[in-house]
Amino acid sequence: FTLTPTLSARILKRRSPEARKAHEHHGGPIDRVYVRLLGWSLSHRWVIMLVCAATFGSTFVVSRYIGRDWMPQDDQSELSVSIEMPEGSSLEATEKVVLEMASRLSKIEGVRAVQPATHTGILDRVTMASITVLLNPQGERPDILTMGQRVRQVTRDYAFTRPRVSFPNVLGGRDTFAPIRLQLLGPDINQIVEIAKTANVELAKVPSLVDVKVNLNLNNPELQVDIDRALASDLGVRVSDIANAVRLLMSGEDQISTYKEGSEQYPVTMRLLPEQRDNPEVLSRLLIPSAKVGLIRLDSIARLERGLGPSRLDRYNRQFSVNVYGNVAPGYTLGEAAQATQAVFDRLGLPPGYSIRFSGQVKILEETTTNMILAIGLASIFMYMVLAAQFESLAHPFIILLTLPLSIPFALISLISTGRSLNLFSALGILLLLGIVKKNGILQIDYMNRLREQGLPLREAILEANRVRLRPILMTTFSIIAGLIPTAIGIGAGASQRSAIAVTIIGGQSLCLLLTLLVVPVAYSLLEEARAILTRRRPAEVQAPAAGD
Questions:
Q1: Which residue ranges of the chain lie beneath pLDDT 50?
Q2: In the prediction, which pLDDT does 18 show?
Q3: CATH number assigned to the domain with residue range 221-254+266-309, chosen from the 4 options 2.70.98.60, 3.40.50.1110, 3.30.2090.10, 3.90.70.10
Q4: How far apart are alpha carbons 19 and 25 in whole angstroms?
Q5: Which of 116, 131, 126 is nearest to 89 (CA)?
Q6: Residue 522: how many CA atoms within 13 Å on its side-chain side?
Q7: Short-list 348, 37, 15, 401, CA closest to 393
Q8: Which CATH superfamily is domain 76-168 in?
Q9: What is the per-residue pLDDT for 140?
Q10: Which of 56, 86, 89, 352 has the largest count of CB atoms under 10 Å?
Q11: What is the pLDDT of residue 549?
């Protein structure tokens, strides 16, 4: 507002009124074609409005053919492989497998280095390990998704380790924010695990999913105590007393006394000998306090047997929980993978009392979609308020906002044609596109109002104003497109995210340009004629009672 006028006054040459008038009335071929097309549109206004309505309606049709993602997969030249050995495997066995796998991964073309890790950090179980795969810089190898497929070809030979390939994301946490992460909830952990196993087999057949994994299996050897709760209640034995007694002798974590030697004091814990802990007969003779008969043997109110159970128990909302993880296969979107996952569970059918709950990136996608719709709605309201104050009119801002929905289907078409999905960054591009598109309408309506104030007839004012404003509109539009082309090409780290914004703006702005150049003047003419009719009718309505008197 200050620098541009100052530099213009210093740099631009002053022209005579005749030269300035000749320049203003000079019309190039683009101007002449546009004026003729605009004149035809003003003579067939309802045709233009029908085209406008059809364009807006196409949004719902086009949206069916575009995939939905939370974020585009960024290429950070790194991926990781996590494995989980069968329960009971030793640390040596885990190290042997992970080192062998790392050696094979290092030979893949495009891999720069591998970093295996066992029993470190959060991997506090000897059966778990991970391999960080560092890739060559972009341009020296295929894209990150292709490299992930090459890694999976190697890990298929180690299916017993349940390998899973994951890519870095902005939220971190390989499992917490996995692309597909759902919780299977229910009252019986054994039934949940069986359902999860069946679902795991079916999900592995889904083309849009890879690296499907269930985080819980009944493969941990254990000694199970099956309590007869009715009999225990009759004898006055509490389940908590049974649990405390068994834990006291099996874990040895409870301090029962202290031992002092000199100035040193040591805690004393009690625990059965190893050979006794593995013998159900010894544990069955454990005495449990009873409120009615004193002490009774454990085997009189419970059945002890060997079996297999989960290595850990997870709960959510007071229900047992088993997590199912998966990655999106190359060529598919997160929305397609989530729909396929839901379809598998719908086909299997869950017993009463059991349910599934999506979390991870699927949940974030749902929240992001809701928040983005709210943001677009609030942005439209704020734009209307500012425009209403600027034009001192409640009707003219509606004409400008009318052009905003017309740009959305063209933005979606540009994403489909370039093989992109509708994600957080492309949605942000649509939000920015709405702000850019409304600029053209402001230029048109502002100059049409100015010519109308000078006394020009409606049609002449519309044709002249839009002819004059065509050049700055084209200049700003092509400048924006030219400036975004390098970003749309996508070079360097984070290119997939930046290019999504640029492609959305370029496609929406360029494809809807002609339609908005016609819709705004046509809608303006309809509004002004309706206002003129109402203005003539109001004095007649006021004078009618006086004439009757």
A1: 121-123, 542, 546-549
A2: 60
A3: 3.30.2090.10
A4: 10
A5: 126
A6: 25
A7: 401
A8: Multidrug efflux transporter AcrB pore domain (3.30.70.1430)
A9: 84
A10: 89
A11: 46
